[in-house]
Structure formats: structure tokens, C-alpha cells
Amino acid sequence: MAWFIAFLEGASTLAVEVIAIRLAVPVVGSSATLTGVTLAVVLLALSAGYWRGGMLSARWDSRRTQTALGRNLLLAAGIYGVVSFPLEANLLEKTLDAGLDVTLAIGLTALGLFLLPVYLASQTVPMLAELTNNEGKAGKASGRILFFSTLGSVVGGILTPVLLFPRLGVQRTTYGVCALLVIAGCAALGRSRFALSAASGVTVLALVVAAHIVLSPREPGFAFDSAYQSFRVVTDEDAEGRAERVLLLGGGRASGVYLDDGETSFAYVRETEKALSETRASDVLVIGAAGFTFPRDAARVPTVQRVDAVDLDPAVKRIAETEFLGEPLDPKIRFLPMSARYALHKLRQDGNHYGFAFVDAYYGKGIPPELLTVEFFSGVNAISDRTVVNVIMDGTLASAFANNLLASFREAFHGVWVKPLIVEDQEFINVLVSNWPMAGSNPWSGRGIIYHDDKNSADRDWVRLLWRRAKS
Prior knowledge:
alpha/beta, Growth Hormone, Chain: A, Rossmann fold, 8-stranded mixed beta sheet, 12 strands
């Protein structure tokens, strides 16, 4: 039984790390800062739990240790399900609203929500080692427990993003993690206290479900959480009151079509289509498929023979066809479910070249910093004659993020033109960035720090821009 409990605890701990990072991505984006700070907090809690669990189990008898072990696991399940998972995104937003630096905001949020439950659950390893040390060989006992705990961590770390997120969604995966800890806690209490453990387990799970119902009410429309992002399809109205169907990714408006005729409702997509018509390109590359509105419309252009759409998330095509566009994609469109950086490498290696490329990979409140470097832009330039990048940023182009991004683009393409799509009373707008003077654009001659793969502050610059209103 001890190995079973250790396995479940290890699996749940790694799953918690993955979930904690995934829940924060729509707020601060995916970055090394988010991953590093979150892991550091988890490791801090683990080290404290190992130390404390060893100290207590060395003083207590086996029955008291067993009781504490079961109690800790049940408490950890309850805290994760009732507090940590439901509140993480909101608390992280609040800390950023308060004007805290992104690193500090991530750290304080992780400390406040995950330090205690990880600390409690991690006491499992030393306590089980003490309970199974029947031969007087502490090294052998602890090694065995650590083996099963680490094996569980391997399974939890792989299955959570690869299998559970795509099949269950993030929220239901959190239920599963809490259930694992409840099972482990009940098993630790033992058969002699079956009634107590069963009642405690049912109570914890009921509280977890109730917390999610209260704190995460279901909103109308299609919703799905993949391993990479959160999808929602809702009905809305544009500024003129015309009804549209909108695809939300990571909380941000990613694609839109009018309900009456199915045509694209987003201005930046229509402007990019005009730019495409200027080039008369036959081969088109799209990085960041979203709802496939631009690939769909590009395939309708008479001169276009092929559209390659790249997106890391394999779920986007199915959701676009069945839930958003409501129709299968044109045969001209080839979907490449792979990372943008690898796609550029593979396409160039295979001898592909495009007359027009559109980069639209920046979604919601998140922005992949690896797609803002001079190395990435150089990769696009190597296989494309004309390139347009859509970025949401300040319309004045005065922020560090705007200046650094444009400087990086210019470094790779040896020229940069911008076309802000001004919307009244909106601080953050779509800006089309191109490597040629497309209609309505102006050259940019500012200065900025080049984003490189080796040294890249794009994620931090973006979060500072996003939350600067709270600091002013």
C-alpha cells in the first residue's frame, strides 16, 4: 500500500505544477519566467515538507504518523480544489493590477496558493519511509518510497498535458488531481478507519466541485481547454451592432465571422487580405491559424494555389470547422500542427517558398516570446517574399515592447512599415507590421533593443505594457 500512496502523491505533485503553469498562461503568457518561478516555489515547498515530515515521523508512533499522513493528503486535495486552482488566474491579475512586477506577481501568487498544499503533500515521502523501515535500513526504505514517488511524477508530468488536458480539459483535470490525493489520503488512513476516511474523502470532493460551480460558472457557448490554450466560441456584436460569432483564445478575441453571411468580421484580417491582393502571391504561409478565417479567405483569392497554415495546437482545425466556421476547409489549405520555429526549419529544408506570409500567433493576454526574436523573423524572411505580422500593442508605438519588437523585425527584414488600425478610445490596438510599404502603411524609424533567442525580455515587456494602466 505504501508504494501505491507514494505513486499517487508523486503523480499529483507533478500534475499540480503543470496545471499551475497552464492556468497562469492566459494572464502572463507562456515564458521561462513563469515556469522557473512556479517550479522554484514548488521545490521550496517540497524541501520544507520533506524536512518537516521526517522530523515529525521520527518522533511519532506509526498510528499517529499514519493519521497525519492521511490528514495532510486530504487537506492538500481540499486546498487545491477549493482555493488554489479556482483562484489562481484571478489572484495573479489582482497582483498585476496592484502594480507588482510580473516576476514578483507570479511568485507571490504561487506562494500564496501552492506553498501550503505542496508542503502538506510532500510530507508523504519521509512519513512513508518511516512507516516502512521495518528492517532498520533507512536508506533502503527511503529509496524505495522515492522510487515510486518519482515514478508517479514521471507519469503525472507526461499524462497531464499530453492526455488529460486534450481529453478532459484543464478544469476536469484538476478534479482528477484532487481525486488522486483523496484516494491516497483514504488509503493512508487504512481500513480500520474506513468510515472516517470515506466521509472525509466525499466531503473534500464535494467541496471541490461546489467551489468550481460557484467560482467558475459555466458561460454560454462552446468551451474547451486544450493542452495549449482555452477555446471559447460566443455570439457578440460589432461596433455597428452587427451580430458575429467570435472565437476566444486565452481570453482574447482571436477570430470573428458575421452570422448573416459568414464573412470575416475582424478589421485586421480584412486589411491583411488587401495586402495579400497587392502581392498576387500564389503560395501563402500563415503562422497562427486561430479560427482559420484568413486561410479560408486567402484560399478564395484566384491567384492563390496553396495555403499552408501552421499552429502548434492540433485542436484548432477541428474546432474551427465544427464549432466556429461550421464548414470544412478548402482543399487548398494544408494544416501543419507543429511549432512555428520547427515549421520554418522543416519548410525551408523541404524547399518551400512563399510569396506572402502572415504571422498571427499572438493571442489573448499571452504572447510567445520565441516568435518575437530576430532569429524567428529571419527564418520567416528566408522563405517569404512579403511578410505581414499582426501584433496587439499600444497605438502610439511608444512602449518598450513596441519599439523592441519593431527593431527586431527591422533587423531581420532590413526595413519595417507599420499600419496601426486605430480604434477610438482603445489603448491597445492591432498593428500590422510589414517588410514592404503596403497600402496605408508608414516606415518606422525608431530605436529599440533587439530581441534575441539568447537574450529576450519580450514576455516581461509585454506584461508591463499590458498592466501599465494599473501602475499609472
